[in-house]
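Q: My labmate handed me this sequence with no annotations at all. I'd like to see what the chain might look like in three dimensions before we decide whether it's worth expressing. Could you predict it?
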Amino acid sequence: MATAGEMVWMRVLEEGVFRFDASEAARAAAGPSLSFADPRQREAAREGSDAPAVVPACEAAPEGGAQKVVLKLPSGTSFYGTGEASGPLERTGKRVFTWNTDAWGFGPGTTSLYQSHPWVLAVLPDGKALGVLADTTRRCEIDLREESTIKFSASSAYPVITFGPFNTPADVMTSLSHAIGTVSMPPKWSLGYHQCRWSYDSSEKVLKVVRTFREKGIPCDVVWMDIDYMDGFRCFTFDSKRFPDPKSMVDNLHSIGCQAIWMLDPGIKKEEGYFVYDSGSTNDVWIQKADGSPFVGEVWPGDCVFPDYTSEKTRAWWASLVKDFISNGVDGIWNDMNEPAVFKTTTKTMPESNIHRGDADIGGVQNHSYYHNVYGMLMARSTYEGMAMGNAAKRPFVLTRAGFIGSQRYAATWTGDNLSNWEHLHMSLPMVLQLGLSGQPLSGPDIGGFAGNATPKLFGRWMGVGALFPFSRGHTETGSIDHEPWSFGEECEEACRLALLRRYRLLPHIYTLFYHSHTKGIPVATPVFFADSQDPELRKVETSFLLGPLLVCASTLPNKGAHECAHKLPKGIWLPFDFADSHPDLPVLYLRGGAILPVGLPIKHVGEASLEDDLSLIIALDENGKAEGVLFEDAGDGYAFTQGDYLLTHYTAELHSSVVTVKVFKSEGSWKRPKRNLKINILLGGGAMISADGVDGEEIHLTMPPESEVSSLVATSELEHKKRLEMIRPIPDIDEPSGQEGAELSKIPVDLKSGDWLLKVVPWIGGRIISMTHLPSDSQWLHSRIEINGYEEYSGTEYRSAGCTEEYKVIRRYLEQSGEEESICMEGDIGGGLVLQRQISILKDNPKTVQIESSIQARSVGAGSGGFSRLVCLRVHPTFTLLHPTEVVVAFTAINGSKQEISPESGEITFEGDLRPNGEWMLVDKCVRLSLVNRFDPSEVSKCMVHWGTGDVNMELWSEERPVSKDTPLRICHQYEVQTN
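A: Here is what I predict for the chain of 981 residues:
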């Protein structure tokens, strides 16, 4: 029987694809073999041609056991893909685990996010490319830490499918699309700007927000309803007080050109009398525990049951609910929490022993570990099908948080619960590009950041680039300050208005790119190296990206605008242009020589546009004086375009004897060309252009000025551009919104990087270490949000007693230079004349080790105290990330010689006396076969405590309880090192 993965996405093996079936190799004494789909590849392999060598090796246990596949590629190969992954664009040196995870507040070293794409795009040294897909739905390790080597590891046997090699990365993506499918053609309104927060809590608030967009002339097409629209978080219901008449609210929204999208989660409240629970129980659709009873887990409504979307019966039941739901005026549906996320569990999800009664053609009855990674995609599929049933004349729009390779057929996606800081702004660019390089072109981040409060400059800069992502949505969490474009002052509001007007002018081009993606599988937004895959200097560029021939160059630095940054351009002609909207906080735009870019009017929502509107063509001639471009037009919704009801126009421009002729070269589709004015703009360089007006479909002629005049026009344009930028008020550089809780998220942590370690430290709100990354293994052992968890110290005698909540003061810092150790020392006032002091050092003589020396010191004590402070103790309180919660234990040898191994099911355990670790305990990750070793002096530690949380573990060290004098501080000095198991 085929794996679920094969049946979900493996439909066609086309020319240029071969399939390495390691499951067969595991059973064959002769080792692995390759079966080529293309006979020419077989001949090339036989004849020893110059084709790139793909050398697979297989390490596999007997049938049903774990398997590793290794593919060696030529030295100098660059890796991309791996789906929804944080960190840099070029993936060499990184490792990803495909296990869909509620990764709230993830960081650049987080190895499992909300989606799984066991896929790598390899760009070879000569610019050719190939793709490699591990055909497994189970947890899979993608290890790219060894140069030019791909390693896949999973718990059971699986085939590997290789696409290529082809001449370009774009050809690989087209080939992949034949196997996993292409993006569904989105409704055109969904390519406008979306405004969301958790939550707009009433119909009145929703309408007020949208009307403010219209009053301020800021484009917007969609408003979103998060979970608070529901009655007690029950899916398919509406709060009767706050949303008493959703259909009427949506009618009002439609009257001003705005669509409404509503959230649906998989967790269904376990409550008799609730119609969804009752009908689901009657139809026997819930995921079961191993004993056959429905699994119950806590999510937003409390105790919940979960639909088993692996069954066609369940998918049909869910689709029927969706079909009825959209009659309330639902234009689109948002599937959240569908990893599936479950509260109050160490793993953040349901037990892997749960049972799914899947259809026979996708794997049949299996435990949760088999279906976990495709659960979100199957939910999105059911939602998509329900919307299609409810209104066959419209294209469904679904957004999903969890997904798998191939889910672009059913849903768009966003990059999850990011943070309002500059690091996450920067990271949003490669994340969107990686998703595109993994088959999902319709994606974008939460503009401005979901968690915490953006500053004006951060929000405006993020909107500048986010307005040009394929999916463009602003979203923030409950409790944050307002994150609408007008919420950050006049300067930010104006920058956001200009950014979104840009998007809407470019919508004809963006919509055309989605048509190409739908028909050919090419990503909408691509890395810059797609313009020249042979140029190695382009392969790590991650603050610029391509939208077809349009190059977008942004800045993610708080102190520099895009116009002040040095941007690496591909070879050839790249001409800058704008819409008279240049701004210090917006990206710089270039058009490739040889391209024609169609642009529309600066509308406020998609419904304002008409086929008879004026159309503009921006033209950049190549070195031969030629250019070409294409424009796709249809009704913007529905499926008539599949029957020929569309207009696909190919425009050309050609220079002959100083005259440029622009014309329609050819057109496709049954639509008659609309009668509209056509404005031609030919770029000369430096933002200068010459223009002419005509009628679309007729030849238009422009006379090019002589070279001397062109030089003068370019110089004048550059000067005017510089003056315009100098006159514009940039967005103020404010560190944080005054008096707002959570504003610390916008600050930039201090980096300590040396030897094996990279630590991020914030000298505010307790001076926490918020990230601890082991560089050789690319494992992020600790990652937290700035104001909670992480690494900190507490003083007091009670568990959860207060620590230092004031800003720490950096006492000294030694930088890594001339062999000196990397070190930072901080202290914070805890009252009563006491300070908490922490020195973090990456040792010069042992760079594998992080040493943290913590102490409570008395700077002054009260009169009559005898020189001693009150009774205090010191608690070292690190909260470590569990990348693989089901595969982790805490292990040590106690002082009395007993061996201890504490699993997540143990809850909270305290060790005192001879049961304390004998100076060393380890956090062991069996999945990656690594241990984080914590060493300390037992004479400084009176007890140790382990507390398992949701996706994390706290390993505390407690000092004795005693008073402190100036001469007798409390001290705990301990070290961390990573070892291979």
